[in-house]
Design a protein that fits this description.
This protein has 278 residues and is α/β, with parallel strands linked by helices. 40% of the residues lie in helices and 15% in strands. It has eleven helices and ten strands. α10 links the parallel β9 and β10. It starts with a strand and ends with a helix.
Length: 278
């Protein structure tokens, strides 16, 4: 397995600095993490690590330097109505195109939390239908450009193994649509990360690593996803070592990404992963 980092290592720093920090910690892989349409004031004035989906690919390649980019994150809101200020279908398509021109083969998305009465009022079947509708055109682009579009546990549908299985069946395109297993998100949403490995096997093509501290047990099943872990892998309650071993048993050799805050915690997490992978 390849071990990389989220490109959000140092707060209030531009994207190039994130890649420099990743390199300084001894890593050679990273995701393109935060991104947006058009221009960003924070990026322009040097205090936001965000990439423009409209940027020329050379800009990102130069920022990354010798860091190998493994995925473009396109975490979306797929349950609320389409709106100009909602990250959704249009941005996922842009992420797929950007990945293609960067030579990246994976784009990671999810449904996210609904924020409107419409989104909260959907039943299980309606949720899957709304997600399917919003992903139809991105799937066409991904299939044409040879990009894997991966669904990450980060919402009421994807954090439920049975619902995700139904959604994958309904979407079809198993060569194009896969799973990005997020160990912390799936656990936090009330699922068992090991069940994802057992149920989806070869459709898991990327892993986001994070462990959750014991004090988060009370929130389990009540929250769908969190951005970063604050503890090293192995210090929490998710059972990361058993997940690593299960992935090894199914022959997973794909890219993985540490979603861990703090340089010391990142380094310790990587050391433990390498030990467990042996």
């Amino acid at each position: 397995m390849k071990i990389g980092c989220f490109a959000l290592i140092e707060p209030f720093s531009v994207l190039r600095r994130q890649f420099d920090a990743i390199r300084e910690m001894g890593f050679q892989y990273a995701d393109v993490t935060d991104n947006h349409d058009g221009a960003s004031l924070g990026a322009e004035f040097g205090f936001a690590a965000t990439a423009s989906l409209d940027a020329h690919p050379t800009t990102l390649k130069q920022a990354a330097g010798d860091i190998t980019l493994t995925a473009v994150c396109a975490h979306a809101n797929l349950l609320d109505p389409t709106a100009p200020d909602t990250y959704g279908t249009a941005q996922i398509i842009k992420a797929i195109k950007l990945a293609h021109f960067l030579g990246i083969t994976q784009v990671i998305t999810t449904e996210g939390d609904p924020k409107t009465a419409f989104g909260h009022g959907l039943n299980a079947e309606q949720r899957r239908l709304v997600i399917r509708e919003k992903l139809q055109t991105p799937i066409q682009w991904a299939k044409s450009l040879g990009i894997e579009l991966l669904l990450e546990p980060h919402g009421i549908v994807t954090d439920n193994v049975d619902e995700l299985a139904k959604l994958l069946d309904e979407l079809g395109e198993p060569q194009t649509i896969g799973v990005n297993l997020d160990t912390g998100n799936s656990w936090l949403g009330g699922a068992d990360p090991l069940e994802y490995v057992h149920r989806f096997g070869p459709r898991i093509r990327h892993v986001h690593w994070k462990d959750m501290p014991r004090e988060w047990v009370a929130r389990r099943g009540k929250m769908y996803g969190c951005g970063m872990a604050t503890i090293p892998l192995g210090d929490g309650v998710v059972g990361i070592e058993s997940i690593v071993r299960a992935l090894r048993q199914i022959g997973f050799t794909g890219p993985t990404t540490l979603e861990v805050a703090g340089a010391d915690a990142v380094k310790q997490s990587a050391e433990r992963l390498r030990e467990w992978m042996q």
